[in-house]
Amino acid sequence: MRTLTVTLLIAVVFVAAAKSKGASRSTLGYRECKDIKDDYRNIKEKGMKWIKPKPLSAICGVDGECPEVEELANRHCGFGIRELMAGKWVSTDLDESDGEQKYNRAFMRLFSYISGTGNDQGVNIPMTSPVVTQTNLDENYQQNGGSMHFYIPTEFQENPPNPTNEDVEIEDWDDVIVYYRAFGYKGLYVSPEVWKREFGHLARSIVAAGLSSDWSRAITGTFTQPGVSDQRHEAMFVARGHYSYYYEPSEYSWNDARGYKECKRYPNTVKPKAVESACGNYAQCPAVEDMASNGCGYGTRDIKAGSWASTDILASDGDDRYVSAFMRLFNYIRGENEDSQEIEMTIPVITKSYLDENYEEKKATMHFYLPPEFHENPPAPTDDLVEIEEWVDTVVFYRTVGDYDENSDVKALWEKEFTILVDVLEKAEESFYPYMAVTATFTRPGYGQQRHEAIFLQWDEEEEE
């Protein structure tokens, strides 16, 4: 037997989805997002329409046994959160040489095992739900093998029969938390387009909630027989560093959320997410020390020394230059380094714009903070465009931005905030370096409660950079 660490990966695909028929939370296992419902209503193609799934309460313990799970607290929409308890599963790899028959033949190898012809005791083992399929994806999100699994029922968990087929084995799975989306289907086999749609909505919902998944396999769960009228299927991601997280904006005053007192001449717009609710809750941040400010409209903090992964934002990448820079750094922490070491994502994502004497951008860079355990000996990047930088203690002045999305004029928004930041710093007689404009993004733009910061560095006029 071997222990299986379940992980998964799929690209975040934003695609149109099918029409909702108003499934309840008890049926889905979670609350659906309004924007997903709206997307479903626009689908005209019959085979892509969203169909209400069969509830788990009508499957598990009724049609057959399911693995033990616990539904976890979830204030988010678009997906459910459950803990799958440890247990034994019978498993087989998908054989790519089987071509289009690889799923059917994998199923039959497992079915032979439970029917008695494929185990050394010749015993019949009851069929359970769901049938789980895991698809491995490479760094380009292309399929790269996979496996299929049946849960072994309780009466055989302690001492399951040994498989007689060398391509079948018994695996011990540890407790694992998964994020999932459920849907029904009319037909024999769910189409790839429907799976793609549901994984896209699942990935988007997870990111919108500020959560993280282990992006190395796509997992599907089929709870009902193919072709029956009432079906349930689930797309699943394994949670990465799941935590019980609660954020209520009303619990923070405007000043507490911003981190400073606003000037009366600048009215409140959108309350930013409080930095203390993000750092240390769903992601790690660099160590900082809050400092007193001389005036209103900005905060002051000392960012402590640490290691950062960095890359240039290349003008040659055109409109994709920020995404390309982000993906270079993301690939580094995902394991594209000399140690093949995965590193937890941290916040904020820092962007530096270096300005000339006319305050025009002449160069820009992007940076991810590395957790403290990697400061002494960070893995070396394998991409020549990525490097590790050691930053010293740095005092900065910041101003928060509470909201923007893909429809916002981001350039105008940042220009406005930096202009205000210059104004409040000059009025407070702070000494700052005006030729480097820094942005810090703590949350994903366009989703949920947000926090972004416009930053200038404190300037020691006797030691000009």
CA-to-CA gap between the ends?
A: 60 Å
| Total count of helical runs of at least 4 residues | 9
Give helix % range: 10-25%
String of helices and strands: EHHEEEHEEHEEHEEHHEEEHEEEEHEE
Average predicted confidence as pLDDT: 88
Describe what this molecule looks like in 3D.
19% of the residues lie in helices and 26% in strands. The protein is an alpha+beta fold and 465 residues long.
What's the structural blueprint in terms of helices and strands?
Blueprint lengths: L1 E3 L20 H4 L5 H8 L27 E3 L8 E5 L2 E7 L8 H14 L15 E7 L5 E9 L2 H4 L10 E6 L2 E8 L8 H17 L8 E6 L10 E6 L15 H5 L16 H4 L9 E4 L7 E5 L2 E7 L8 H13 L15 E7 L5 E9 L16 E6 L2 E8 L8 H18 L4 E10 L10 E7 L7
Task: Give a brief outline of the structure.
The protein is α+β, with helices and mostly antiparallel strands.
Task: Write a concise keyword list for the protein shown above.
nine-stranded antiparallel β-sheet; 465 residues; 19% helix; elongated; 9 helices
